[in-house]
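Known limitations

Files may contain more than one protein. Parsers should not assume a single record per file. Below, a two-record file is shown to illustrate correct handling: read the sequence, read the token line, then continue until end of file.
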Amino acid sequence: MSGEWSVVNLIYTRQVSLTIHYSQLTIFVPMQFSSALLENAVNEFAKLPGIGKKTALRLVLHLLKQNENDVTRFSEVIAKMRNEIKFCHRCYNVADGDICSICANSIRKQETICVVENIRDVIAIESTQQYNGTYHVLGGIISPLDGIGPDQLNIESLIQRVQKEKTEELIFALNPNIQGDTTIYYIQKKIPGTHLRITTIARGIAFGGELEYADEMTLARSLQNRLPIEKYVNK
């Protein structure tokens, strides 16, 4: 056994981490750093979502290879973004000022509001270049099991916005699940009047998908929301 462990020790000195499989025993060897500064940087990068210790180490080592001015500019940009970024007073999207560039754009259809869960959804819809209205970021969806109720979301401000502005259509672009449908139902019941057109984004089989892999709910909604073939082909 001593001979086997000496080989392990030799490998360990050449790698930052190692998983040792010995018989039925699995030993996870933690990373060892010769610099506390390097270790602290790796630990901070590893706090980012989807970033493990090994990926964090690669990122830190990459920064060490870069020009010092480039690294300084990188850190300054991140710090400035965190310190100076704001949230739009109207739609709660990220903004450089009190009002985001979308709400401030007079060319966009200000009477149309697309309700989304978070800022990532705004970016996703904007990337399609098919929507020319405004947004309202709820900051989440109603989920009693997670302890998230209507009071914790930007729902009341949406209702006030609809009443105050000349809103013609409210488009719900929320995830097609129980929490999303519950949020849509709650907001719909809170909005008075019948002049407002309330819609949701289409739900159904994704382009390129196969019917056998679709769940029952998706397939059922695809059948309910079927389109005339002429309209589908023209799309």
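...continuing to the second record:
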Amino acid sequence: MAKNLLIVESPAKAKTIEKILGKDFQVKSCFGHIRDLQKADMGIDVEKNFEPSYIVPADKEKVVAELKRLAKSSEEVWLATDEDREGEAISWHLCEVLGLDPNKTKRIVFHEITKPAIQAAVQNPRRVDMNLVMAQQARRILDRIVGFELSPVLWRKISMRNNLSAGRVQSVAVRLIAEREREINAFNTVSTFKIEAQFTAKDVSNKNVTFSAEGKKQNSPEDAETFLKGCVGADYKVTDIQVRPGKRSPAPPFTTSTLQQEASRKLGYGVSRTMLIAQKLYENGYITYMRTDSVNLSNTALGDITNTVKGMYGEEYHQFRKYKNKNENAQEAHEAIRPTYMSNASVPEQEWARLYELIWKRTMACQMADAELEKTTAKIEISTNKEELTAAGEVLKFDGFLKVYREDKDDDELEEEANEGMLPPLTVGQQLPFKEMNATERFSRPPSRYTEASLVKKLEELGIGRPSTYAPTISTILKRGYVEKRDKDGTERFYTVYSLKEDKVNKKQSSEMTGAEKSKLFPSDLGLVVTDFLNKYFDDIMDYGFTARIEGEFDEVAEGKMKWNTMIKDFYNPFKKDVEKTIETAERATGERELGVDPESGKPVMARMGRFGPMIQIGEANDEEKPRFAKIPTGQSIETITFEEAMNLFGAQGVMGQYEEKDVLVNVGRFGPYVKWGDDFISLPKGTDLGTITLEKAIETIKAKQIADMPVGTYDDKPITKGAGRFGPYIKWDGMFINVPRRYNFAKLSQADMDELIDAKVKKEANRYIQRWPDENISVENDRWAPIIKFGKKKVYLPKKKDDTRYTAEEAAAFTLEEVKQFIEASIPGAFAKKKKAAAKKASAKKAAPKKKAAPKKAAKKK
């Protein structure tokens, strides 16, 4: 048994470190957090100065038991959890659970998993930093308070199932995405005309080359046409040439945020994927710690980079640089993300290689010379109207740090741009041969939707969140359904081009695809409704400055300048008042928007949030006839859907026709689109456009269902059918649905299998049913205290007898169907009258069928 037990967070890290430290150390993983706030009563005693109550979760009990056993048999326990606040808190929780004294237990930290770094850390242990622990505890407690108090408010006040949640950082992130979406929707596109002329001149090898020059933007088609007409018969003369040196400098080495952004832009990685690969690279000793907001590089690293740059590219490519953190409160690691050894330009693991190479190149580039450029600007006068054109070119004189990027696919464009931007030698007074001039219509563009990476950048700019919180925040808002990550198809747009060639001005129309987006963040309707509600009643929580100030206070706790429970108290008291006031006074939020009036029924058509998501509703809930509903599909929103689009969701208006003397119609329900045939509902594939479903297609669907529903056997002379529902495969017999467990081969169910399943179900239900009338959807059943009647899904409790006693099961077994119906009618007045009324409506619908049948065809054509 080794003398020393060293505890880290991940098993991969444990293996790497154990190899370095040798036989004196046994290195074990605690697999992340080992304690958390208990869920009952928030896990926080507000009355006792916000005292937290921690428990070891069930899934960590085995890990903790093993660590306790190993700690007892070791001479000394060392803690080597990650070097951020969460890592410090895990070390403290380990002390609490293992019975260690945090003031005496050795705590080591390191920025990289290399032999020198690990050995140096073991030589220089410290104690658990309780300021960092309390900063993490303050964050956890404050976030628990916000979630615990706000989520029930959302459950009560927003028409959705109880799966809503709110969080201090996640709600602000959703607000950013919602505001950007509304900014895009409100954006008014303005068109202008770009003037571009083409000229020829001799290059250095005396060959004719073409180059372009731009003129002043024109604001209207008339202005553009007038400008070109004013250039008819003109001469073009160079009036001025300016040559200026320029340079490009490399970006600083990666922080968590900039790595996430660059991996998104260059590799197309999401934030979570980037962090997952970075974690693996760190644990395997390839890079330094990956959660950091520092751009600092250690002297050892700087020396290693210098030697590598000089060795690979020569002295002239090296330039020493020392980067300074913008954020002086950089709370995580104190070094940027970089390779542990610059001699490793790649790693053998293919799935990690692209991200590693990106880190290696960025680290190399940050200590390389500037790229040197020469920028040339030429002014060209138009003789007829004395207007001016400008030609600009750029020549790369020395590539500097760009040399590293040329090895990467994306950066071939840099050279192409430089070549395309070169101007031929020009002189002042030179007359230029004119080829053509175009005035091309161009459109102003709305701000771009956020990608995961650009959202991280914005959060960082606002001072919201920290390196360890960006990825979990984005994962949470996607998982909760407040935000969707998806592509958007482009739409065709026409634009005008005026051309001047051979002294003639021509006009033509061209088209382009616009608005296509890939992997962008869109707010869902739920996200918009929740954001509006929280903005209205909890403006502090949703305020960017307030959220950033809270982050600043966490930093002060980490530095020992503020007591953690003082900051929590200052936040909690006003927040709790807002919660109580909102529960008392706020109205339910649905995001309702009226779209128009249904021409057929005269009822209002509105878009709103329902219990199962965004929907279109025709009619009011208190109307005599139930409202009709259609689910709003992905890609459309309560805020932007038009009346025509909403009506198209309903497909055929009313009855399309008949099949086997039963009415046929299509609609969208809670679980998606369906065909209704008489009293039967037959599901259509999700996303089906109801405008494309004709009567013939609906009948095909019905026939397919009939074939699927054909009896596959009999039991007690009654047919058995089989199917698949929301809860898996089933057989149906005598009105009973019987689930088919996985141990049966559903595709090849034998009669014996079905007999076995029905026998088991009948025995199970034997004591349940006293009497059943499946065709009427009525049964008399045993309940806990006395028999009850089931009418559909409703329970009807039997009244007491005249002697004030309850009916027995034996007495209930003697009831006739008519007697049972009388009990139902007494409890639910008009229960059977409704059925008659519905039948009358069906009869009138049959007469009107030909008229209604035409409606969907129009809708389909229109679409």
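Parsers that stop after the first record will miss the second one. For reference, the second record is described as follows. DSSP finds 25 helices and 34 strands in the chain.
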